[in-house]
S24 family peptidase
Amino acid sequence: MYEITATASGVEVYNDINDTQSVGRMNFPGIEDCDFALPVWGHSMYPYLENGCWVALKVIHDKKILPGEVYYIEWGDYRMYKRLLLGNNEEEVIAHSDNTTEMVGNQLKYAPFVIKIADIKKTLFS
């Protein structure tokens, strides 16, 4: 378990997990093949992921993404949990938030956005 910020929304974070000491270990039947766990910060993935919950993650080395599943991704200066959907072409994905109830004016507070797969530095399956 690493106590770093993994947002459920688009807040920039700069911590590096490689420089972070683990804060504990988990042992839950059925998730033995997971690599580590990170907490969630933010509300964009509610109700699937709640602010403050911990998520067990498995590193994906080949960047193969199953459309519609929730992933922890690192790209640019961001770390976040998002449901990844197929993009308009095979080089991109749509980062979708499960929280579709919060609005700013008449716009979704956590609107979907496109990410180029090549820009994703790390992909972890939740």
Notes: Residues 32 and 97 are 27 Å apart (CA to CA). Residues 11-15 have pLDDT under 50 and may be disordered. Residues 17-125 form a domain with the Umud Fragment, subunit A fold (CATH 2.10.109.10). The chain has one domain: 17-125.
